[in-house]
Give the backbone structure.
Amino acid sequence: MSDSGRFTLSYLAGISSYFDLHYFNGLLAIIYLSLTVALLVVLFDLKSKLSMFVLALLYVGFPTISGVLAYMFTADGYLLANLLTTLAVFLLFKWDKKLWGLIGSIILVYIAIGTYQANLTYFITLVVVLFIRENLVEDKIQWKKYFLSVVSVVMGLLAYVLHFKIYEKIH
């Protein structure tokens, strides 16, 4: 998997095992999906049970998520990376300790991109949706959060690119 730039996939998918255990991988995938939706509920400050249900329904029923479940041998790794991406945004927007949140977010973005590069667009999309939500709901935009998001993406992507370049030279 390293030739395609997915350095961390074997580590994240290796949590379940290196064997094809569909039920165990599926159980972990469901746990990761549940935790991701729970983080999204907190990020979007959802209060009504109906909005939480609709978010969970839309998230789990999204074609990309259901498509990942067709490849159950790596579903747990991909969905854990998705959870880590959501956690990276959570650390930037909801964590009180901004410096540690930024450092943690950079590491999580690197791991998530190292698992599947589409997590970069998921991170950016979450930040943009939160920005739009903040514009519509609140009067004052906290630009520092969005600046830290850019720093997190750039540093995480830089770490990923450096890792990939070193891997290319070695192999």
